[in-house]
Write a structure and sequence with these properties.
Elements (H helix, E strand, L loop, with lengths): L21 H5 L12 H8 L5 H12 L4 H23 L1 H5 L3 H4 L1 H4 L5 H32 L6 H18 L1 H29 L12 H16 L18 H26 L8 H12 L3 H29 L6 H19 L3 H28 L14 H17 L8 H5 L6 H22 L1
Helix pairs in contact: 2-10, 2-12, 3-12, 4-11, 4-12, 4-16, 8-9, 8-14, 8-15, 8-16, 9-14, 9-15, 10-14, 11-16, 13-14, 14-15, 16-17, 16-19, 17-19
């Protein structure tokens, strides 16, 4: 479907700064600006996972009770399950020209999209903090190697400002960072991986019994690691031409997600025995020690990795806050997001592991039913771009009911554990139930309305 240029969005090709108005977030990208190269799909799904988050997740599996063999199996299964919905969501962007939240108004309505958009903004702020704690810790250690003692809050502030500037420029600069800084980080982390692999830091042949509840809980953490990108995905494919092959978009997005998450998490498994605890400080100290004379390279890579990840977070957060109903310029939304992320990182730095696991687990309960509805609407519908319903739709009701029930019944965290999770001895199946119930319920409603 062709989208005529509008005054809010029609800007000259080649301009680095994305349009700052709130209207530009709510409207489709004009056809004249849909000139993004297809390879950017890979980099925008690959680079944000380049950082200590995957390493920490891999190390966390051992502390959860998995051995190396079951850990690798959980990494493969969990990442594939989590990445597939994200890759299919990415293919919605070229056809609609809309951000992921705005694209979901087709199923939820213009009013119904506001709750998930607000939740996504909160989610992005939390990920901003999760990514920045290890990055700032690494920057402090790097500067200390150079004889410069820097307080954590200052190192964090420097990184947060760089990320905020990138998000103010918007989509085009964020994409450039994913490709070029992501490529540099890829080479650096490959070097680190080779060094660690040759050191043989863990006995990979040591095995012990692992209960199915433990395996299911660990797999749920890994599912959430990639599924968390589902609410971002078409934000970074909407500048592709509308006739771009959906199969190519899905394939490149899937390759990017799995190509970064799986190797990093397996390296976390390999280094788990040399890490005192699955925390940023312990992981960074372990890597610095293992890398020896090139330890500074590892620290620099970890610090830089937050820029690719959080430019992504801050930019999507600014879109989401506007989609949630706040009618402000995108620059104001970006500044507010980065500022709150900074405050949360400073406040939560001392209890990172709990913050990380709870944030990953609990916040995912709304993403699973939401993306189930969005994918069911797009792939079981007519694949055409329609005007969004103005109010609260049947899909929005399904989203709200399913999200509340999955949290109440299935969630497992240090904050709250539902009765079904108790009955399953802590096993968490809430993501799977939420996704399948919401998608199935929505498709049933589509067919009922079509036959009436």
């Amino acid at each position: 479907m062709s989208h005529p240029p509008s005054p809010a969005t029609a800007k000259p090709a080649g301009r680095l700064m994305e349009e700052l108005s709130s209207a530009s977030v709510r409207e489709p990208v004009p056809d004249a600006l849909k000139t993004m190269r297809l390879d950017r799909v890979f980099w925008s799904h690959f680079s944000p996972n380049l950082g200590p988050g995957g390493w920490v997740t891999g190390a966390l599996l051992i502390s959860m009770g998995l051995d190396f063999r079951t850990g690798v199996l959980a990494v493969l299964v969990g990442n594939l399950i989590g990445a597939l919905p994200v890759a299919f969501a990415a293919a919605i962007g070229p056809a609609t020209g809309l951000t992921q939240m705005e694209a979901s108004r087709r199923a939820l309505g213009r009013l119904g999209v506001r709750p998930p958009a607000f939740l996504n903004w909160v989610y992005c702020v939390g990920w901003d903090a999760v990514n920045n704690v290890p990055a700032a810790t690494a920057l402090v250690a790097l500067l200390l190697m150079a004889g410069v003692s820097t307080p954590f809050w200052l190192a964090l502030g420097v990184l947060a400002c760089l990320q905020m500037v990138a998000s103010i420029y918007g989509h085009h600069v964020v994409q450039l960072l994913q490709k070029y800084l992501g490529g540099l980080l890829l080479v650096t982390f490959l070097l680190m991986g080779v060094i660690l692999a040759f050191q043989g830091v863990t006995p990979v042949h040591t095995h012990h019994p692992v209960s199915w509840q433990t395996f299911l809980l660990a797999t749920g953490v890994l599912v959430s690691f990639n599924l968390s990108w589902a609410s971002y995905s078409s934000d970074y494919t909407r500048y592709l031409p509308a006739n771009t092959s959906p199969t190519k978009v899905v394939g490149l997005a899937l390759a990017g997600l799995l190509g970064s998450a799986i190797p990093f998490q397996i390296l976390g498994l390999l280094t788990a025995v040399s890490v005192a605890e699955p925390s940023p400080t312990a992981v960074i100290a372990s890597l610095q020690n293992a890398m020896g004379p090139v330890g500074a390279v590892a620290l620099a890579a970890i610090a830089l990795s937050s820029i690719t990840g959080n430019a992504f977070n801050d930019n999507t957060a600014s879109y989401s806050l506007i989609s949630a109903g706040l009618n402000v310029p995108r620059i104001a939304a970006a500044i507010l997001t980065a500022s709150l992320g900074y405050v949360l990182a400073v406040a939560g730095a001392g209890r990172y592991t709990t913050l990380y696991t709870d944030y990953l687990m609990v916040t995912m309960y709304w993403i699973a039913p939401w993306v189930g509805i969005v994918l069911a609407d797009w792939y079981c519908g007519d694949h055409k771009v329609h005007a969004a319903p103005p109010g609260w739709t049947y899909g929005a009701t399904i989203f709200a009911v399913t999200s509340v029930l999955t949290i109440a019944l299935f969630s497992t965290s240090s904050v709250y554990t539902g009765p079904v999770a108790h009955w399953l001895n802590g096993a968490d199946i809430g993501y799977y139930v939420g996704f399948l119930v919401a998608a199935g319920w929505y498709v049933l409603g589509m067919r009922t309305r079509a036959s009436s």
